[in-house]
Amino acid sequence: MAALSNDSANLFVALAARDLNPNLTVIARGEDKSIETRMLRAGVDRVVYPAQLGGGQIARLIGAELGHDEEADARRRLTDVMGFELQVYRNFNKDGTTTGEILEKTAALRVVAHIDEDGVRHQDPEADHSVGEGEAVVLITEIAAAPVAATEEDDGLCFPKNLSVGIPAIDEEHHHILRMIHRLRTADTDRANSVAHEVLLDLREYTVRHFRHEESLLVSADYPEIDDHIAEHRSLTKKVDQLLAESGQMHRDNLIHLLDHWIRHHILEVDRRYVDYLKGEIDAETVATGNRE
């Protein structure tokens, strides 16, 4: 943890820590939000702003004294204006995407800005404007146009049937991802925002618990790709932390798309490699080269 009072000093500490141990989880204190992108690119997993945290706590204390309903506050968006609101959507697709594709899958009315990896803002981008992995766009959405919650039989996503890795405890943890998606898809419209925040907090706790369990299993099995697998875990954790930092303005579909990608890429591709290794279906050399025999 880098908790000095100077952002530049914290950036230097983060770089040094990441150089000494690439698998560390690095948390840094921040004062100036304009350099957060630089911190994340330097290897910081999460930036914490004491002034922002303190301000939120003071606001809650004042609200409690005045008898405000915290549940109602959780459902209300500060960006809500006359039935419209500004929301942030962050792209986690490694191949990139376009603003037009984001508009189509979020049903937003317009993309008003794209913030690239250097923190540069591109106003009113065209539909074919490229959005790289980890970059964000600001959307205008209509609250009344929120999709109707799906039923338990049809949650709006098509999941592969072969999610099992053959290890009951790991399978149960993976199934929890499905339950989180179901909660998001079936949430009542008036509670959609608060449910998304609850699921996001649940997901953050899940990453700690599940990744620790999985990594201990791989270490005991002397899995040859353990370092790459841990790096994949750190990447997923960073994405969750990015959404947490933006949870007040996060587009709910952003979390659903991240969880769907988690299943399709991490569980069905990355995890599948260690399952085949543990079963003896591939050897260490095959794992290292990524080839299947």
In short:
By secondary structure, the protein is α+β, with helices and mostly antiparallel strands. It has ten helices and nine strands.
CATH fold call of the largest domain:
Four Helix Bundle (Hemerythrin (Met), subunit A)
Backbone shape: globular
Please name the fourth-level CATH homologous superfamily of the largest domain. Answer: Hemerythrin-like
Look at the helices and sheets and give the structural class.
alpha+beta
Largest sheet: 5 strands, antiparallel
Total domains, how many?
A: 3
Structure report:
The protein is an alpha+beta fold and 293 residues long. The chain folds into three domains: 1-68, 3-Layer(aba) Sandwich (Rossmann fold), CATH 3.40.50.720; 77-145, 2-Layer Sandwich (Alpha-Beta Plaits), CATH 3.30.70.1450; 168-289, Four Helix Bundle (Hemerythrin (Met), subunit A) (Up-down Bundle), CATH 1.20.120.50. It has ten helices and nine strands. A five-stranded antiparallel beta sheet has the order 3-4-9-6-7, covered by helices on one side. A hairpin with a 2-residue loop joins strand 3 (80-81) and strand 4. Helix 7 (192-220) packs antiparallel against helix 8 (226-245) and helix 8 (226-245) runs antiparallel to helix 9 (252-278). The chain starts with 6 loop residues before the first helix and ends with a helix. The model is unreliable at 145-159 (pLDDT under 50).
